């Protein structure tokens, strides 16, 4: 049998981000079913997403200390099987244990897998011997978008065709993806970003001014993306006065498709388009998209603003990763882990700000989106600071 090459490593990494999309998006599609079947309150259902995020956030924080010691291969394979265990557990454990306890055990299992996957996949791809790192990173992150669209579309169609009672089978089917990919990661070649003892320590990074510029850029990137993404379904439902199913298909899918197209576009044009100016141009478009979504009197135009936001935020997360890796070549795995932590903090803080603002405006989600323009504005400010810093230190 022919030994796998670097192309197979990239394919496994792409599938890793599809796995990430599965564990982040499947449970929210089943929330109404969980409420009907297990009698979960709205508070308990919300806790499923909260626990998923908190566990991934803690994994981000802790992984910077142990991944290099244990090794990429062991961790990435284990991450996939944690995801498998969580997805299978979601289908089985609520019927074996007390329902909510069983659900929480499952969420913690797949969240551990998701957190490890998020931290490791980017440095694995960055370490591959590719000609254009920024292009490879942008293309990699597009697969999270395609995975999100696939999970929403295929799961919605499956439940429509086979009924709500088939949701356990759906969990088993989606678990096949990380199961197969976990075994694939056992065989593919893997490289490390830095040799043993050469990478910067966490203490080194925390003392670097450049690192903190990237931290702010990652927080702003995560917040710019998720402030719209997390509310896209509700935004479509309330604005277009459609059902939750139609809201799921129009809001999140429209957002994710345009976000994925943005990432593919940059992957194809990265040799001609400088990364930092592209990020800053995207931040300007992001400001405009939030203004359009929140201030337009037309629901359809507001939804277009939602889609344009997806287009504008596509390059932000992978672009900042690429810039940071280039500017801090000895940052190693610790750099990616801490930046993932910063990004996830933005992913939590952005939607929270929108929800609080919407409540302050009398549960008006359109008005609640307006303060989110703070995040792309932060990107513009700190992008300019980064440009000046890099220019000064290259002179």
> Which CATH C-level class of the largest domain is it?
Mainly Alpha
Number of helices: 17
Element pattern in H and E: HHHHHHHHHHHHHHHHH
Radius of gyration: 20 Å
CATH architecture of the largest domain: Up-down Bundle
Distance between the termini: 51 Å
By secondary-structure content and strand pairing, the structural class works out as mainly alpha
Strand content: under 5%
Number of domains: 2
Task: Give me the oligomer status.
Answer: single chain
Assign the CATH superfamily of the largest domain.
MFS general substrate transporter like domains
Overall pLDDT: 85
The description of the largest β-sheet is: none
DSSP E strands, number? 0
CATH-assigned fold name of the largest domain = Growth Hormone, Chain: A
Give the low-confidence spans. Answer: none
Shape: globular
Secondary structure: helix percent:
over 70%
Overview of this protein structure:
The protein is mainly alpha-helical. It has two domains: 1-192, Up-down Bundle (Growth Hormone, Chain: A); 195-395, MFS general substrate transporter like domains (Growth Hormone, Chain: A, Up-down Bundle). 84% of the residues lie in helices and 0% in strands. It contains 17 helices and no strands. It is globular.
Features:
single chain, 395 residues, 2 domains, 17 helices, mainly alpha, Growth Hormone, Chain: A
How would you concisely characterize the structure shown here?
By secondary structure, the chain is mainly alpha-helical.
Sequence-ordered SSE layout with sheet pairings:
Blueprint lengths: L5 H24 L1 H8 L3 H29 L1 H25 L2 H29 L5 H30 L4 H21 L14 H5 L2 H21 L2 H9 L3 H26 L5 H21 L3 H15 L2 H12 L4 H29 L4 H5 L4 H21 L1
Helix pairs in contact: 1-5, 1-6, 1-7, 3-5, 3-15, 4-5, 4-7, 5-15, 6-11, 6-14, 9-13, 9-14, 9-15, 9-17, 10-11, 10-13, 11-13, 12-13, 12-14, 12-17, 14-15
């Amino acid at each position: 049998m022919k030994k796998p090459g670097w192309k197979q490593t990239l394919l496994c990494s792409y599938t890793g981000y599809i796995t990430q999309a599965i564990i982040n998006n499947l449970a929210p599609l089943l929330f109404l079913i969980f409420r009907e079947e297990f009698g979960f309150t709205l508070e308990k259902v919300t806790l499923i997403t909260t626990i998923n995020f908190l566990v991934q956030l803690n994994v981000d924080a802790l992984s910077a200390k142990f991944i290099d010691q244990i090794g990429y291969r062991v961790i990435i394979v284990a991450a996939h099987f944690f995801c498998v265990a969580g997805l299978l557990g979601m289908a089985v454990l609520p019927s074996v244990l007390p329902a909510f306890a069983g659900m929480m055990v499952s969420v913690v299992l797949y969240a551990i897998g998701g957190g490890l996957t998020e931290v490791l996949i980017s440095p694995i791809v960055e370490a591959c011997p590719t000609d254009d790192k920024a292009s490879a990173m942008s293309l990699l992150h597009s697969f999270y978008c395609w995975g999100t669209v696939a999970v929403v579309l295929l799961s919605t169609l499956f439940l429509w065709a086979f009924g709500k009672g088939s949701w356990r089978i759906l969990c088993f089917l989606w678990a096949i993806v990380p199961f197969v990919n976990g075994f694939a990661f056992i065989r593919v070649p893997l490289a490390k970003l830095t040799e043993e003892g050469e990478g910067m320590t966490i203490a080194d990074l925390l003392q670097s001014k450049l690192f903190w510029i990237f931290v702010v850029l990652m927080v702003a990137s995560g917040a710019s993306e998720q402030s719209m993404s997390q509310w896209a379904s509700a935004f479509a439902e309330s604005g277009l006065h459609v059902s939750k199913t139609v809201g799921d298909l129009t809001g999140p899918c429209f957002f994710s498709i345009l976000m994925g197209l943005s990432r593919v576009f940059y992957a194809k044009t990265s040799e001609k388009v400088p990364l930092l100016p592209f990020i800053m141009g995207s931040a300007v478009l992001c400001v405009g998209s939030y203004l359009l979504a929140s201030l337009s009197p037309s629901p359809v135009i507001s939804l277009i603003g939602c889609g344009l936001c997806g287009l504008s935020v596509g390059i932000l997360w992978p672009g900042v990763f690429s810039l940071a890796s280039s500017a801090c070549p000895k940052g190693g795995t610790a750099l990616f882990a801490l930046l993932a932590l910063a990004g996830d903090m933005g992913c939590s803080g952005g939607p929270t700000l929108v929800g609080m603002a919407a409540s302050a405006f009398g549960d008006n989600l359109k008005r609640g989106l307006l303060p989110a323009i703070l995040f792309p504005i932060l990107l513009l400010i700190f992008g300019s600071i980064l440009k000046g810093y890099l220019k000064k230190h290259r002179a």
